[in-house]
């Protein structure tokens, strides 16, 4: 079988009780955090909003994909925005 999806508190996320993160919210949060990180850095495209948004979207979506794919599906999965989007370590953003 498959493992459970756990929150950062170690308790499982339950769909019936509404303890879930919707995909659209997950994607928006990932893009938002990546955009903040890009704006904090000195880069050649900091004045180009369209380019910043595009890069933030690529970074955020990639981070989510990588975080999901690196998990063993038979073991429990602890959901954490911070670990997904960390700039260091075993993450897509790195």
Description:
By secondary structure, the protein is mostly helical. Helix content is 46%, strand content 4%. The chain has 3 helices and 2 strands; from the N terminus they run E-H-H-E-H. The chain has helices at 23-40, 49-69, 81-84; strands at 5-6, 77-78. A two-stranded parallel sheet has the order 1-2. The protein starts with a strand and ends in a 10-residue tail after the last helix. The relative contact order is 0.20.
Number of strands: 2
Order of helices and strands: EHHEH
- Tell me the Rg in angstroms: 15 Å
Report the major sheet: 2 strands, parallel
Rounded mean pLDDT score: 83
Strand content: under 5%
Helix proportion range: 40-55%
CA(first)-CA(last) distance: 31 Å
Q: Write out the strand line-up for the largest beta sheet, numbering strands in chain order.
A: 1-2
The poorly predicted ranges are none
Helix-strand category: mainly alpha
Quickly count the helices: 3
Task: Tell me the overall shape.
Answer: elongated
């Amino acid at each position: 079988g498959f493992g459970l999806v756990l929150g950062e508190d170690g308790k499982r996320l339950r769909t019936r009780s509404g303890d879930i993160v919707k995909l659209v919210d997950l994607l928006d949060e990932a893009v938002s955090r990546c955009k903040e990180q890009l704006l904090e850095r000195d880069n050649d495209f900091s004045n180009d909003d369209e380019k910043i948004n595009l890069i933030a979207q690529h970074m955020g979506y990639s981070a989510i994909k990588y975080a999901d794919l690196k998990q063993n599906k038979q073991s429990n999965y602890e959901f954490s925005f911070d670990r997904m989007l960390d700039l260091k370590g075993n993450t897509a953003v790195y």
